[in-house]
Amino acid sequence: xxxxxxxxxxxxxxxxxxxxxxxxxxxxxxxxxxxxxxxxxxxxxxxxxxxxxxxxxxxxxxxxxxxxxxxxxxxxxxxxxxxxxxxxxxx
Length: 91
Description:
The chain is an all-alpha fold. 57% of the residues lie in helices and 0% in strands. It has one domain.
């Protein structure tokens, strides 16, 4: 199964085309844990290419969805005016 997955996730030598989306190809290239996860999913899908692509795409979209990045910090009144375009509060 590993050889089938390798052929599925690598670029074709003559045409340089991929049979899988770019994000799956990048995960395959990163090796290690990522590659093992892809192999496990491929085995669970029974070697079905379309089911594999659908499963991997769904799984990684779901995991990407949950990340939130919050930028915060302390600003003086001058920094608030300059960086945040924040004026004085009305009393």
